[in-house]
Structures are given as C-alpha cells and as structure tokens.
From TrEMBL:
It is an enzyme of class 5 (isomerase). The lineage of its organism: Bacteria, Thermotogati, Thermotogota, Thermotogae, Thermotogales. GO terms for cellular component: cytoplasm. One of its GO terms (biological process) is galactose catabolic process via UDP-galactose, Leloir pathway. SUPFAM superfamilies: Galactose mutarotase-like. One of its GO terms (molecular function) is aldose 1-epimerase activity. The keyword Isomerase applies. It comes from Fervidobacterium thailandense. It holds the Pfam family Aldose_epim. PANTHER family: ALDOSE-1-EPIMERASE, GALACTOSE MUTAROTASE. Belongs to the aldose epimerase family. Keywords: Carbohydrate metabolism, Isomerase. This is Aldose 1-epimerase.
Length: 365
C-alpha cells in the first residue's frame, strides 16, 4: 500500500472544515500477458470513495453515502482482473479512440478512406474503438491531492494505425474526486488529422443492486438522432416529442422501459442531443441517492444494459439486462460520416478537451 500524496485541510467560509482527501495505490493483479495493474483509491472525509484501475481506466467501485446509514456502491463491476480483460459490456471503462459506432468501420478524412477494425459481435460496424480499444490498454498513472480534490491522471499514446485510426494520439484522462462529485476530463493531441470521441462506459445503479426499474430519470434533450436496425444514425436530428424517448420531465424508468419492451432493442440505446451542459438527473426511490450529470459534450448515449449478458459481478451479484444504466456523454455516433453532426476531427496543433461531472445528493421520499 503506497500513498501517492498527502491529505490536506480545506478551509471554507472562515471555519475549519475537515474535508480530507486521500489517494492510495494497491496492486490489483497481472494481465494474461504479465503486465502489472494497480487499483487507485480516491476518498474524502464526506464518505465518498472511488476505485479506479489503470487497466482501461475502469471505475470499479463508487461508494456514495446514503441516508440508509451505510454507503452504497452505485456502479457495476468485477472482482478480478481477468474478468475485466473479458468484460463483454465494457463495464466502467474509458472508451476510445471512437466511442459508439462507425458504420462499416469506414470514414473519409481529407480525401483518404480509412478502414477500421470491425468488432465481431457488431459487424458490419466498428464499435468503441475496435477489437483492442482504450478499454483494453494499461495506462500510465500518477496521482496527486490538492485544494480541488484528489486526482488520478492516466496517460496513453495510441500509435498511428492502431485499430485503423490515423495519427499518433497522445491521450490524458483525469479523474478528480470532489466534495460530492466525480469529474472526468479528457485531453488529446495528434500529429496527423484523425477522429476522436472519448467517453466512460460506467453502468450505474443508484439502488446498489437489482434492476433499475425503481429509478426516476430526466434527460435535458429536446432532440435525438434516430437510428437504423444496426443502431447507426440515419443522419437526421429529430424532436423527442411524441416518441418513447421523451424524458424531458422526470420519468419513471420502469414504465419507460415497459414502453420499449417489444422493440428489437428492448430498452434505451439512443443518442440524445443535449440542450445545455446540465445533461441528466437520476434518482433512486430505494436509497434516496440522486445524481446530476453535467458535461461539455454535445450528446449523451442513454443505454439501459439491454444486451448485458447474465454474469456474476462484484461480490457474487448476478448481473443481466437492466441491471444498470449508462449515461455516456460523447459526440454523436458515426459523426465522421455525417457532415451535419458536430465534428469529431482533431488536427495537429489543436487540443481535444471534454469534461463530465457526476454530482451526488440525497432526496427524501
């Protein structure tokens, strides 16, 4: 057990408020190829604890204090590294170079056609960065504790041609545990024109277990991008009004899922076009835990784990369809093939920078 930095005493409003932040590194295991992987624990004296691996930047645990008298782990995950190496649902991981789907794994940039690696289960599309995306990489890690919370800084350089993407891409992802929130920042630079779309694929369950039907959700988006049978956007941006995807008002998630139960997707797996930086609100009627999502990203993929296979997760809990939900803040799917979508092109001399904040509070029923 190794402390990466010192705790600090934060002073608010002239009164000593013992808001102490800590950061610890522990050995988690070795990959099948023999590379050691660490788990980093960020915590504060308010009772928030997050555990993150430098394998895939995985958020493995996120403990939130609750009015039930004990903290609740609000994310899905596994107990062992070998499970994360398999990880069919991308639980908790950083997704890149390109989150979501690119049709046929092909796009044209500056007149050059690029063919990406195709995912076996998602042919004919490229999904979540390819066969060996950022979720399968061991990132370099460093940490520090400062006046703005405890930080874990992950870096990875994706070489030119990796999974078919052009350019040597230097990526930094910073996790910051704040007083009552977790902030994720994404930075990248390239030496050749490329496309990039980074997100985090954490599955939340604010009830700490079971199905997510007891949640209330609101997504601040008046438009969305309709998709075809392969979940590729058809290229239009349309109003959510009058569709099952209208979540502009707080909505019972169980009832919303029921309305989509007979569709081929069997739930939500759709990109919302956000109205502003306040992207979403979710609340568990079981625990009283509420979460707000703020982001600089233009879109949010709301996914209700419709295709999550039945499997054992942390502490022997059985996961499956609708065991969690993802709020993947990102650019739109297949943007390189739709000029009317916000651009995902990154050029030399420019810096990619996006951020997302998951903020927690408590509501009494």
């Amino acid at each position: 057990m190794q402390d990466l930095d010192l705790s600090y005493l934060k002073i608010k409003g002239g009164h000593a408020n013992l808001e102490v932040y800590k950061l610890r590194e522990d050995f988690f295991g070795c990959t099948e190829s023999g590379t050691p992987v660490s788990e980093y624990t960020l915590e504060n004296s308010n009772g928030f604890v997050v555990k993150i691996l430098n394998y895939g930047g995985v958020i493995r645990e996120l403990w939130v204090p609750s009015e039930l008298g004990k903290p609740v782990d609000v994310v899905l995950g596994y107990d062992t590294l070998i499970e994360y190496e398999r990880n069919p649902g991308y639980l908790g991981a950083i997704i890149g170079r390109y989150a979501n789907r690119i049709a046929s794994g092909r796009f044209v940039l500056d007149g050059v056609v690029y063919q990406l690696a195709l995912n076996e289960k998602n042919r004919p599309n490229a999904l979540h960065g390819g066969v060996q995306g950022f979720d399968k990489r061991v990132w370099s890690a460093s940490g520090k504790v400062g006046t703005d919370g405890s930080k874990l800084i992950l870096t990875y350089t994706s070489p030119d041609g990796e999974e078919g993407y052009p350019g040597n891409l230097k990526v930094t992802v910073i996790y910051t545990l704040l007083s009552n929130a977790l902030k994720i920042e994404y930075f990248a630079v390239t030496d050749k024109p490329t496309v990039i779309n980074l997100t985090n694929h954490t599955y939340f369950n604010l009830s700490g277990g079971g199905k997510i039907n007891d949640h209330v959700i609101q997504i601040n988006a008046s438009r969305y991008t309709p998709v075809d049978e392969n979940l590729i956007p058809i290229g239009t941006i349309e109003p959510v009004a009058g569709t099952p995807y209208d979540l502009r008002q707080p909505s019972d998630l169980g009832k919303a899922l029921e309305r989509l139960s007979t569709t081929p997707v069997g739930g939500f797996d759709i990109n919302y076009v956000l109205d502003n930086e306040y992207a979403a609100f979710v609340y568990s009627k079981s625990t009283g835990i509420a979460m707000k999502v703020f982001t600089s990203q233009p879109g949010l993929q709301f996914y209700t784990a419709n295709r999550l296979p039945e499997m054992l997760g942390k502490r022997g809990v059985l996961y499956g369809a609708h065991s969690g939900f993802c709020l993947e803040t990102q650019h739109f799917p297949d943007s390189p093939n739709h000029p009317n979508f916000p651009s995902t092109v990154l050029r030399p001399g420019k810096q990619y920078h996006e951020w997302t904040i998951f903020e927690f509070s408590f509501l009494r029923g």
